[in-house]
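User: Teach me something about this protein's shape.
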Amino acid sequence: MEFGKKYYPFLVGFGIIFLFFFTRLYNILSLPIFTDEAIYVRWSQIAGNDANWRFISLTDGKQPMFVWIAMILMRVIHEPLLAGRLVSVGAGFISMIGLFLLSYEVFKNKTAALLTSFIYVIFSFSLVYDRLALYDSLVAAAIIWCLYFEILLVRKLRLDLALILGIIIGFGMLTKTNADFALILFPFSLLLFNFKDKYWKRKLGLWFVFALTATFVANAMYAVLRLSPFYHIISDKNYVFIYPLHDWIQHPFAYLIDNMKGLLDWLISYTTLPFIILVLSSFLIKKYFKEKLLLLVWFVIPFVALAFFGRVIYPRFILFMIMPFLVLGGFSLFYMITVLKKFWLRLIVACVFLLMFVFNDFFILTDFAHASIPQSDKGQFVASWPSGVGVAETVAFLKEKAKQQKIYVGTEGTFGLMPYALEIYLHDNPNIKTVGFWPITDTPPKEVLDSAKKIPTYFVFYQPCPSCKQTGVAPLGWPVSQVFQIPKLEKGSFYTLYQVIPQ
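Assistant: First, the predicted structure itself:
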């Protein structure tokens, strides 16, 4: 009995770790590559093969940390998409560990911390993004560890903690702009400062010095991006997604209602109403009010800021904000289970608040099209034109055709899913030439027609066609013959490979 009590946290912890890797790695390549993944994976390939392009992501205003990690993994993992997705798997594992430490530091209870880690593993939002080659799981991991070390710093006031915190913030800033919230929310850690201490003024001054030190280290790391001539594009790209202050001042509430409707819909879809109730019920527990308030602040301020300033928003933008929710939910669930004495009551409570995640996870892993996730995400990943449904079939077909002869492949688009998804797998094949075209008109490009007279020439369509009012079909009048066509879940949306008929 004593052995069980002593080692149960380790046994439960190993079980949670096993469940994490099973859920993240099972069928990980079943979801087709989609537009953003194709971009990031292709950048990683290029950066890994040419040192001059280590800052290639800056050409589109994106920070390079994801690309740097993925290009290293590609040296040992030869499936490019798998290498990219494993970056997020690793980030998810770091998030799970970070949430355990964060919960334990805040609430000083191992069981509550283990529950928080378990919730992260089955949390549908995290499950989706930990299996995709996107920046967002990496940002969430950085935010969790930033919050953890900010709490440690305000409680222990040590220089080494300030330096480590600065490195983690810098890592986050080199990943994505929204990691800047780690600096914006830094002062709120003073909610946990002990103002009753006899030497509180001296300690507050010391905290201020350490906070400046962490900020300096973070910005020094970020300054490495200034080595690239494309550094200035980051701010230009940011304004695609957020309103500049001078524009926002003129109409501060113009988009608030619509943004808030979308954000709340995504929040409820991914977190579920029962879990939101579980999170809010944590404030009915009298203990640790300041700690719970700090966790809530780390959600509310970024969420409201996105509602006010968001110009183009996606569900993944709120992933990092929700991480403190899991800590509150884990603590609240632990308290309820502790209060209830009968096992069957504890089981009912756990099922009420968590079973919806488990059901949804089953569909995410086995039948993504029927998973209960926001339609905007489902459209991008499987249903609409950004989805890479048909890419795998195209790559296999073109590789077979290129075994004995040279072929030419044109694509609808010069940036994004096409031609990047094909270049990822075909760039080193000397018999295949891939060229992107945009815009697409009712008249085929001369280069494509000329190529069709010499060698087999193919063309991929997957975006909306203005003249034919469908998605993924050739404009009327193009001299093409359909090789295959794959319908997507969205009505009237297809992915089509054509062969160009010589004229």
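Now, about its shape. The chain has two domains: 2-378, 387-500. The chain has a mean pLDDT of 93. If you'd like, I can walk through any region in more detail.
User: That's plenty for now, thanks!
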